[in-house]
TrEMBL record:
The lineage of its organism: Bacteria, Bacillati, Actinomycetota, Actinomycetes, Pseudonocardiales. Pfam families: YflT. InterPro entries: GSP17M-like_dom (IPR025889). This is General stress protein 17M-like domain-containing protein. The keyword Transmembrane applies. The chain crosses the membrane at residues 76-98, 104-126. Residues 28-101 form the General stress protein 17M-like domain. Residues 1-21 are annotated as: Disordered. Keywords: Membrane, Transmembrane, Transmembrane helix.
Amino acid sequence: MSAPFLGNRPGAAPGLPNLPEPPSGWPIGSYAKYEEAQRAVDHLADNDFPVADVTIVGVDLMLVERVIGRLTWGRVLATGAASGAWLGLFVGVILSLFSANGSFGAILLGLGMGIVFGVVSGAITYGASRGRRDFTSASQLVAGRYDVLCQPRNAEKARDMLAKLAIGSEQT
């Protein structure tokens, strides 16, 4: 993984975040799935290629939202109670550490208050939506294809190595 704002761009002030820049390099491969691009870069790394010159670029980005299930009052209240219980338990433990006798009552009080807060918070949020979004989902950013780029000084060597990988995978 890389951090897009924390690179060491020449001329950038030290300690300040860098602005995003388009990737540079020559294309050495294009893949339909991220796993294939990752496998190509892994092949280069396994063969002592200077992979610091390589970049994987997702092209034709799209946001995919996969629906997980239906959202009901029961599910909303149970989820609110569970998340509130964790928060309340945490607060209760902290309070018990600072109480004079380290009472177990502080933990139970925090737990109970957390559950109530979680249920009320979940009910208010769900009630305010008025049924406009009665499902749960998970979002993911995916690309239509993944291009592997390499700095020009090593691009030809990288293409040759990836061509051998492609030939080897066709024979198996």
